[in-house]
User: What shape does this take?
Amino acid sequence: MFSKACTYGIRGALYIASRSKAGEFTGVKEVASKLDIPQAFTSKILQTLVKSDIVTSVRGPNGGFKLNDEVSKTVLDVVLAIDGTDYFVGCALGLTECSSENPCPLHTEFVNIRSSLRNRLAAMSLSEARELLEEQHFRISG
Amino acid sequence: MFSKACTYGIRGALYIASRSKAGEFTGVKEVASKLDIPQAFTSKILQTLVKSDIVTSVRGPNGGFKLNDEVSKTVLDVVLAIDGTDYFVGCALGLTECSSENPCPLHTEFVNIRSSLRNRLAAMSLSEARELLEEQHFRISG
DNA sequence: ATAATAAAGGACAAATTAGTCCGGAATTAT
DNA sequence: ATAATTCCGGACTAATTTGTCCTTTATTAT
Assistant: This one.
């Protein structure tokens, strides 16, 4: 479904959310080891989240990553930051001619499925996801 | 969404369906050029559709490909043959712990979205898709 | 039989995605 | 100031997906 980088990014964001309540920063090392994601790759992914303004980073001792605004930032934001709009645009069959005026046989169903996907991702803020995970003692690890 | 090979496969199957009504066979060359897909790649993809029992091929002059049973074969069959079950199984966030007993925050929504995707694909037979395309004079080309 | 046609299949090449390595820059503690 | 820590960024490698090429095999027409 999502690219690996993308699922890593979502899990990373959620882990950081769950760890940095008191304004603390979480380091890549910890994120990577706890989520069992290669460290250098985790670093890359968190860098793109920084550029997308989803997390903030500080260097040096006690540095690390912190969510920017877990209440307004959603899972969709992370998906868009890493995988872009792939899942939400274009004909699923790759038909250039396909549009709402001239829909392919699966057009309507895909519009519905994709918009419901998008809506659900947009409705799930990182803080809500974090809370739900914590409520059931969910391990975010791989 | 789907892999390129998969969308090529769907379009290929639909093109063959639209061309081989009178028991005729359609060649890769024609499929590839009409759909603007690389010929050798088209060949590979049609081969996997043959192995999956979705199309039948015959070699030699006037040979080519023909759908096996466009009424019972569905778009889902093509997707499964080429991309496998990727889109329909496993936690979208890559959480191994996630299951219906211990669902991640997005579990239920994903189950719904994916099953509706699967249902729509399973409900769309290749013949129905072909008819819908023909009714609106749809070009299947890229 | 022979030649022409067309799919099958294996080996290869290109592009994309996944993942690694390492030096540099910023921050903090001593 | 210096050393330790930690993120940044570029160049690299590995794996997968996409796509090519060429030889073989089956079928048909002459």
Summary: Residues 3-5, 38-41, 44, 58-63 of chain B lie near DNA strand D (CB under 10 Å from a C1').
